[in-house]
Amino acid sequence: MRQRFTRGLKGASVLTIVALFLAGCTQQSMLGWLPTERGLTNQVDRVIDLWVVSWVVLLVIGVITWLLIIWAAVVYRRRKGQTGMPAQLRYNMPIETFYTVVPLILVLGLFAFTARDQIEIESPLPDPDVSIEVYGKRWAWDFNYLNENVYYAGIQAQELPGGSIDNDVLPKLYLPVDQKVEIKIESRDVIHSFWIIDFLYKKDMIPARTNYWYFIPQEEGVFRGKCAELCGEYHSLMLFEVHVVSQAEYDRQISALQAAGNVGRLGPELNVLQNLPGTAPVSEREE
Asked: Which of 234, 189, 201 has its CA nearest to residue 40?
């Protein structure tokens, strides 16, 4: 009986390894089932690699752990005719040292790689080519193109009959491909979160605090964006699109905003909260 179980356990282990190997051959699994593809920005590949390697390590540990649990439960089960309590063990220093030290090494290793990549992603890009100020507001977005002194005022996503979204009126953020981008992130009212889904990164938008995000878009296309922080009744409709385009197309979009009279900046004077720390009293602002 024990030999048959041992053979069955070995067979199950082989099948598990084969299944994991075959699953790893798909394009989707190589991305860790993330909603993106490699090369979209200078940061995406770094995030994908950290995610996939972490899950592979954790999956291997999980499989080994479950196999050991099943093995111990079967091999050391109570046999027919056995009575009383089994032999009690107080401690086993080698095993206890092993399951204390190994998890600690794994946690420290994952922390170190995560910190390394986060520092790299958060590092400012010197002399950005494009500087854009993004204001989150319930429940839409304002985009200030600071270098060109033009703005885009967005509206909340509009629902169509049947529950779909009118993509034509979604707020649209234009970025030139292969250019260094600086995003200055602000909030007009409550906490929001600026999330370009395919770029695999998000930054909180906190009233009275400015956050920054630096990256280089490397592939042209249209990408989804949304608020990732529950911010009220219509949070689910706080959507936008990111259009990564050629420099010529980017210049045309800027010219279109200028022609529409969107010259200037939609600044903090439009914020709902005007009594935040560092904000002057109303009497002083009027003077």
From this structure: 201
